[in-house]
Amino acid sequence: MAINGKQYDHEDCRIMLPSGLAFGIQDISYEDGQDVEPRYGRGATPRGWGRKNYEASGSATMDRDQFEHFKVALAATAGGGIYDHRPFPIVVSYANEYQPPVVDTLPDVKVTKFGGGYKQGEANDGQVKIDFKILSPIKWNGIPAKKG
């Protein structure tokens, strides 16, 4: 198989949070889906189907200093409590000089969980894991997962 050029890599990814451009994010992942359920009547095969609710969620791991800026921005929208924050967007963009840019928008994000820790001897200590729900359909490079 021929090598066709540079692909997106870690240096090509930019993540915008309420606290601004994130420099201390180790990873971010997000997913969405809408399950379907077969509808049965008489017999053993489906006679139709129905849709379940759309769901989207994600997680990120960031360095402690990045988390400190992030939590201050969240608390500022809520009058003090981190979990009381208003929904906010996360924008993840991928761009390099050889490929067109790709921009995924995670609208209306609500943080549901924070987790951190410390382990002696680690070179990159103090990372904080964040879990979140995405309350509106993800826009996958501008195309919404669900219509309005």
Class per helix and strand makeup: mainly beta
Taking Cα atoms only, what radius of gyration do you get, to the nearest Å? 19 Å
The first-to-last residue Cα distance is 42 Å
Q: Can you count the helices?
A: 1
Shape: globular
Main pleated sheet = 7 strands, antiparallel
Strand content: over 45%
Average pLDDT, rounded to a whole number, is 87
- What is the level 1 CATH name? Mainly Beta
N-to-C order of helices and strands: EEEEHEEEEE
Strand order of the largest sheet: 2-1-5-6-7-4-3
User: What's the name of the CATH homologous superfamily?
Assistant: Hcp1-like
Query: What is the number of strand segments?
Result: 9
Helix content: 10-25%
How many domains make up the coordinates?
Answer: 1
CATH topology: Pnp Oxidase, Chain A
- Low-confidence stretches are none
Indicate the CATH architecture: Roll
Describe the protein's architecture and organization.
The radius of gyration is 19 Å and the shape is globular. The strands form 2 sheets. Strands 2-1-5-6-7-4-3 form a 7-stranded antiparallel β-sheet. The protein has a single domain (10-31, 52-144), classed as Hcp1-like (Pnp Oxidase, Chain A, Roll), CATH 2.30.110.20. It has 1 helix and 9 strands. It has one helix at residues 64-78; strands at residues 13-17, 20-21, 25-39, 48-62, 88-96, 99-116, 128-134, 139-140, 143-144. The protein is mostly beta strands and 148 residues long.
